[in-house]
Design goal:
With about 210 residues, the protein is of the alpha+beta class. It folds into 2 domains: about 35 residues; about 130 residues, Nuclear Transport Factor 2, Chain: A (Roll). Strands 3, 4, 5, 6 and 7 form a 5-stranded antiparallel β-sheet that branches. A two-stranded antiparallel sheet has the order 1-2. A hairpin with a 5-residue loop joins strand 4 and strand 5. The N and C termini lie far apart (about 95 Å).
Length: about 210
């Protein structure tokens, strides 16, 4: 008899629990509110800059108060301007060092294929002439994002201006300085363009072009 009562009690308990879950979760698809957004509207929402965003600390930022450039930057998924500048400076230092040392392996991880070929051509020409390059990056005077360009709504290019102080030397096979002065610090302005996919899962930027100011 006690076993029979235990079964009844268990059934009542299961019914009560199920009722509670039903009131919280709903009964299924008939209770769910599904909103279907046309593809054109979804693409418009994705492509157009938002009117506001939530900054670190939970405060809402009015995008209308941002500069045109900063508003465009908000279209890049998971983009943090300060972190990008810091990363760009690190990449600048690594690429400069790898190029002067002829380290194509490191360059292949930091620049795109087309630019890598140009770098390798210069590196090979130096080797054929028995020349070696030395670059000492003293520090950055200025680093700023100059412009942003979205390519086919799939990729983004950022143009960054670096103003840095460097000591650059070119030596022959005997180790004699044939270009530059080890006691002379140059102030050099470079404009580099970095590219990245807009896919939020892709975080790495690659250098795709360089030029002197």
């Amino acid at each position: 008899m006690s076993g029979y009562l235990d079964i009844i009690f268990l059934l009542v308990l299961v019914f009560v629990i199920f009722s509670k879950l039903k009131s919280v979760l709903g009964t299924g698809a008939e209770d769910a509110k599904v909103i279907i957004i046309p593809k054109e509207q979804f693409e418009k929402l994705y492509k157009e800059p938002k009117k506001s965003l939530v900054a670190e600390g939970g405060e809402s930022v009015d995008l209308s108060k941002l500069s045109p450039l900063d508003r465009e930057l908000t279209r890049i998924p998971n983009f943090n301007k300060a972190l990008f500048i810091k990363g760009a400076q690190k990449a600048f230092e690594m690429i400069l060092s790898a190029f002067s040392k002829g380290d194509a392996g490191t360059l292949s991880k930091l620049v795109n294929g087309e630019l890598l070929k140009k770098f390798e051509k210069v590196i090979n020409e130096r080797k054929e002439q028995g020349m070696t390059a030395e670059t000492d990056l003293i520090g950055f005077v200025e680093t700023e994002i100059e412009s942003v360009k979205f390519v086919d709504d799939e990729n983004v290019n950022l143009v960054v201006k670096f103003v840095s102080e460097q000591v650059n030397l070119l030596k022959n096979a005997e180790g004699e300085v044939v270009e530059g002065d080890e006691n002379y610090v140059q102030k050099i302005s470079d404009v580099w363009t970095f590219e990245k996919s807009l896919n939020p899962r892709v975080n790495s930027w690659l250098l795709c072009s360089t030029k002197k100011c």
